[in-house]
Amino acid sequence: MMDRSTNTPHRRCLLVTTCVFTVFLGFSSLEAAQVEDRIVAVVNSDLIMMSEMKRELAPERDRLKKLHRGQELARRIKIAESMALTTMIERKIQLQEAKARGVEVSDQEVKQTIKQMKLQGEKIDDTDAWTFKNIRDQLTLLRLVDREVRSGVMVVDTDMRRYYQEHRDRFALPEEYTLSQIFLERRSSDDGAAAKARAREIIAMLKQGETFEDLALRYSEGPNASRGGALGLVRQGELLPAIERAIANLELGGISDPIDAPEGIHIVRVEEKQPKQFRPYEAVKTEIQGLVFQQKSEDVFQAWLANLKNKAFIEVKFEPAASGQPTGGLSPLPSPMKKE
Predict the structure, then answer these.
(1) Looking at the chain, which runs of residues are DSSP E strands?
(2) Is 265 helix (H, G, I), strand (E, B) or coil?
(3) Ramachandran sector of residue 252 (left: φ over 0; alpha: ψ -120 to 50; beta: rest)
C-alpha cells in the first residue's frame, strides 16, 4: 500500500506529461497539415482548399511552364491563379444554389455521360473519384442554368431582325472573281531581281497592246499557262493576301502591278467580279434565332450569377507571396469579390 501511494504522484506526473506530449504532437500534426493544405477561400458555409486549387490549376500551370520562364512565368501563373479561384468560387456558389433548388444528378446519368465522352474519344478515368465528382458538378450546373436562366429567355422576331441588321456582314457571301494570271517562278533564292525584271518587261508589252492571253502562253510558268493564264472562279479568302489587296480596287479588265510572293511574281487580270452579296433574312432566320438566344442567355446568366455573388459571403484567406516567384500560393482576387 505504501509503495502504491508513494508512486502515485510520479504516475500522475507521467500521465500529465504523456497527455501534454500527446497534445503537442496533435498540434504539431495540425500545423503540418495546415502547411500541407489550407483554406484559400470561404464561400458561405463551404471551404475551398489549397489542394483543390492546385488540382484545378495543374493543367494551366503545366502549359505555362512550357511557354514561359522567370518573372514572366510568375506573372502569368498569378493571373491564372486568380482566374482559377474566381471560377471555383462561382462554381461553388452555383452548386450551393443547385442544392437549395433541389437540382440533382444521379450516378447513372454521370456514368452515361462518361460513356458518351469515351465514345467521342475523350480519355477519362472513370475510377477516379475527383473526375466522377467533377462531371457530376458540370451536369448539375447545366441543369441548374437550364432551369433558372435559359428557360426564361425569349427570342422574338424583332430581336432577330435587329440582329440581322446590326450584323449583316456575318451573313454576307464572299466576293467572287474570275481571274487570269501570268506567273514567274523564282528559280533560286537570289534571282528575285531577275523575276521582277521579267515582270516589268511583260507589263511594258501589255501597255504596248499585246494580249494578256498571248503573253501568258509565252511567258507564264504557272500550271494554267496553256489556257492563257485563266484561273477561273475564285472567292475572297481563297487567294494570297497580297493578291487580294492588289485586285481589291481593280475594275473589270484591270491588270495588277507585279505582285511579289514567296514562290514567285504574279501579274493578275480581273475578268469578272461579283460584288459581296447578303443572304436574305428568311434564309438565315433559324441561324439568327440560335445566335440571339445564345447572346441573351449569356446576358441573363451574368446578371443571375452577379446576384448570387452579391448575396453570398465570400472571403479569400491568403496573401500573395512577397517574392513574386511562382509558389504554391495564390494571388488575391480583386476586392469586389470579397464581401464582409
Answers:
(1) 39-43, 46-49, 172-173, 176-185, 230-235, 259-261, 264-274, 277-278, 314-316
(2) strand
(3) beta
Matching residue, cell 514561359: 68
Phi-psi category of 232—alpha, beta or left, where left has phi over 0 and alpha has psi -120 to 50?
left
Q: Mind listing the domains of the chain with CATH numbers?
A: 32-154+299-340 (1.10.4030.10), 175-275 (3.10.50.40)
Q: State pLDDT tens for residues 259-273.
A: 988 888 999 999 998
How far apart (Å, rounded) are the C-alpha atoms in residues 331 and 319? 7
Tell whether the torsion through CA atoms of 245, 246, 247 and 250 is positive or negative: positive
Gap between the terminal Cα atoms of the chain:
64
Q: What is the pLDDT of residue 232?
A: 87
State the helix-helix crossing angle for 157-166 and 281-311, rounded to 10 degrees. Answer: 100
Cell of 58: 495543374
Which DSSP symbol is given to 107? H
Q: What's the CA gap between 216 and 180, in Å, rounded?
A: 9
Contact 159, 109 (CB under 8 A): no
Please name which of 298, 334, 301 lies closest in space to residue 316, comparing C-alpha atoms: 334
- Choose between 17 and 94: higher pLDDT: 94
Predicted confidence (pLDDT) per residue in 5-31, tens digit: 444 444 333 333 333 333 333 333 334
Q: How far apart are CA 60 and CA 63, in angstroms?
A: 5
- Degrees, nearest 5: CA angle 236-206-177: 15
CA nearest neighbour of 247 among 340, 177, 189, 188: 177
Beta bridge partners of 230: 180
- Give the count of alpha carbons within 13 A of 297, CB side only: 14
Residues 6+ apart with CB under 8 A from 81: 53, 57, 330, 331
User: In this structure, are residues 314 and 338 in contact, taking their beta carbons and an 8 Å threshold?
Assistant: yes
